[in-house]
User: Which sequence fits this backbone?
């Protein structure tokens, strides 16, 4: 009777074993894909933020240190952008307002470009990332 039960229950046993093996393999593959995707997305954000910071620091040095109202507003906007970037939580991927802060930085960058009369186009692609003027 035991041999007969093993034959009858073989399909169910093999199904269960296959499911467990597939689950383990899928979990492993999913973790690897998730890490790769996260690293790629993080690198893109880092590249974008780094470009904004380099842009802001360069213009901060280039603008004359005049006290006229136009340059004063530009300097305040640049200082604000630099401050936002410096406060950005690079090391905390679980930060719940990461996307909101990133959008604020992008908006401030566009505002600064507008104030400086600069057309900006930040592109991230597989071939290159650039900031053009």
Assistant:
């Amino acid at each position: 009777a035991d041999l007969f039960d093993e034959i009858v229950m073989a399909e169910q046993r093999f199904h269960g074993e296959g499911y467990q093996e597939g689950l383990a393999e899928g979990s492993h593959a999913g973790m690897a894909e998730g890490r790769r995707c996260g690293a790629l997305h993080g690198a893109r954000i880092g590249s974008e933020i780094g470009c904004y910071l380099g842009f802001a620091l360069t213009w901060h040095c280039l603008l004359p240190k005049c006290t006229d109202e136009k340059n004063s507003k530009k300097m305040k906007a640049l200082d604000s952008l630099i401050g936002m970037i410096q406060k950005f939580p690079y090391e905390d991927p679980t930060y719940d307002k990461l996307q909101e802060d990133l959008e604020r930085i992008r908006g401030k960058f566009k505002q600064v470009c507008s104030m400086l009369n600069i057309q900006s186009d930040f592109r991230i692609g597989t071939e290159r990332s650039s900031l053009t003027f």
Strands lie at 121-124, 129-132. Residues 2-62 form the longest helix (61 residues).
